[in-house]
Each structure stands twice: as structure tokens, then as C-alpha cells.
Specification:
heterodimer, A: mainly alpha, 6 helices, B: 80 residues, mainly alpha, 4 helices, 0% strand, flat
Chain lengths: 221, 80
């Protein structure tokens, strides 16, 4: 338990965010109605994704200076769970959009940016699978990872703010802060972000351990 | 440290807003008139939702824990 306390913490925090997310009193807003509660699930997916992909690119950079394949393992597995969170973010966003914006896809700049960003990361995995030699695979994909992450920032945070957007906080819309009169939403939202991020780290850590085991077995075999 | 800074900046970015006072004024006026799931809540149906989501989440948790334990067992076996 000493090593795994953060996993139990993630579970507890997420239980709190699910139960609290459904039961707390929320601002009564037109168009959103009760779906404002999606804030506690959809947005933490993206925060989680950004954190996980940051860790991934961190390990990619570390690999480039160390040439230690263990860093590459971490880079790819954190990218893996980062992309899973991104896909879940897009799917949950589409469901939310259908009810509030009228369509699953409105060509909102942030929607498009997120889709493009994810496609770029899918290509990262395709790139890795196309290379045989371990070191070459690690080196080339590490460089690609850096470019992919660097592209994600303008796609998600800069471009949507420069033009008309449906998303809160972009394109001239007030951010969700404007709705959150007494910080009620923050009470569930911030823990949810932490909880889901920890879950993502847990998923990645399991995959990393499996990879390390496989490499260990291959070495001794 | 880099990630901590990134997360701090992301949280700080939540504070970026314009036109805040306008929308909060609108909010106060229409507060009682906006349709919410009040009847749903009065009927206690919201608790069905809570129960469903908690069940699904706990199921996924149990699954993840079992995978984690399996990997730990493999690690221990390989060390010996």
C-alpha cells in the first residue's frame, strides 16, 4: 500500500467526483440545463490528456539525450493513455455538443483542432510500427513526439481563441468562470481533474511494467 | 517541475475571461425560470443514475486492480 496509495486516492477522488458531480447544486443556465455537469467529466479528460502527453514528450526528450530504451517505453505508454483520454474527450464532447449545440460536430475550431491533434498522435503509433530496429524506432518517434506535442498547443489553446468558437473561453465567449458564481462547480471539478489524471498515470504505469517485464524476458531468453 | 508549471498555467488560464459581469447579471434574472431536472430529483431518480455510474466505475476499478495484481505477481516471479 505504501507504493500504491495514489491509486487508492484516485479511486476515492473519482468516486467523490461521480457522486458529487450528479448530486451537487449547479447554476441554472439556459441551453446547458443539467448538462453543465458534463463539465466534471468531459473537461478532466482533456486536462488528463495534456498532462499524460506532457509526460510522454518529457520521456521522449530524455530518451534523445540518454538513449536508454526504458525512457522510450515510458514515452510511448504515456502517449498511449494520453490518446485514450483524448478519444474519450472527443466522444464525450460530441455527446454534449449534440444536446447543447445541436450537432455532434459543428466544425468548432476546438473540435477540429482536437481531432487533428489526435490524428497526429495516431500517426505517431503508425510511425513506430513501421520501424523495426528498437533504437531507430525510439529515436525517430521521439523527435516526432516533440513536434506532435508542439503542434497540439496552438491547435487546442491558441487557434480556437483567435476565431469564432462555440467553446467557453474561446472565440469571444466567456469562460466557465462566468457561470461559477460561488465556486460550487470548482469543488468537484478540480478533484475530478486530479483523479482522472492519476487514473491515466495508473494505466500507463501498468503498461510500462508489462513492457519492462517483456524486455526482461527477451533478454534472459 | 515542468509538468507542475504547465498544470499551474493551465489552471491559471481558467481565470482568463471578459464580459463576466454581463453574463452573471443575466444569470441572476433567469435563475428560477431555467428548466432543470428538479422533478427527476424529487422522484429520487437521480440516485438511480448515481448508482449506475458508481457501479460501472467500481467494476472498471476492480478490473484495473486485478490487472495490476497480476503484473505484480509476474514481476515477483521473474525476480526469483
Amino acid at each position: 500500500m505504501k507504493k500504491n496509495w495514489w491509486k487508492a486516492l484516485a479511486i476515492l477522488i473519482l468516486l467523490y467526483s461521480i457522486i458529487g458531480g450528479l448530486l451537487i447544486e449547479v447554476p441554472r443556465l439556459a441551453i446547458l440545463n443539467e448538462t453543465i455537469r458534463a463539465l466534471f467529466f468531459h473537461v478532466p479528460m482533456w486536462f488528463g490528456m495534456i498532462f499524460l502527453l506532457s509526460v510522454s514528450v518529457f520521456y521522449s526528450i530524455k530518451y534523445l539525450s540518454s538513449n536508454n530504451l526504458q525512457h522510450d517505453v515510458r514515452a510511448v505508454e504515456f502517449a498511449n493513455s494520453g490518446v485514450v483520454f483524448g478519444v474519450l474527450g472527443i466522444l464525450t464532447g460530441m455527446v454534449w455538443a449534440k444536446f447543447t449545440w445541436g450537432d455532434y460536430w459543428s466544425n468548432d475550431p476546438k473540435q477540429n483542432g482536437a481531432a487533428i491533434g489526435l490524428l497526429i498522435y495516431f500517426a505517431y503509433f503508425v510511425l513506430r510500427n513501421s520501424l523495426e530496429d528498437e533504437q531507430k524506432k525510439a529515436r525517430i518517434s521521439a523527435v516526432y513526439n516533440i513536434f506532435a506535442f508542439a503542434t497540439l498547443i496552438p491547435l487546442l489553446f491558441i487557434l480556437p481563441r483567435l476565431t469564432d468558437s462555440l467553446h467557453p473561453g474561446n472565440g469571444g465567449n466567456p469562460g466557465f468562470n462566468a457561470y461559477d458564481l460561488d465556486n460550487r462547480l470548482r469543488l468537484v471539478f478540480y478533484p475530478a481533474v486530479i483523479g482522472w489524471t492519476l487514473m491515466g498515470v495508473w494505466f500507463s504505469s501498468i503498461r510500462v511494467r508489462i513492457r519492462d517485464l517483456q524486455n526482461q524476458m527477451n533478454e534472459t531468453a | 517541475m515542468k509538468n507542475l508549471l504547465l498544470i499551474c498555467f493551465l489552471f491559471l488560464s481558467l481565470n482568463g475571461f471578459a464580459q463576466q459581469s454581463a453574463s452573471s447579471m443575466i444569470n441572476e434574472e433567469s435563475a428560477p425560470k431555467v428548466e432543470m431536472a428538479d422533478q427527476f430529483r424529487e422522484d429520487g431518480k437521480i440516485y438511480v443514475l448515481v448508482a449506475i455510474m458508481v457501479t460501472i466505475f467500481l467494476g472498471v476499478t476492480v478490473y484495473t486492480v486485478s490487472i495490476d495484481k497480476k503484473v505484480s505477481r509476474l514481476e515477483k516471479d521473474l525476480k526469483n
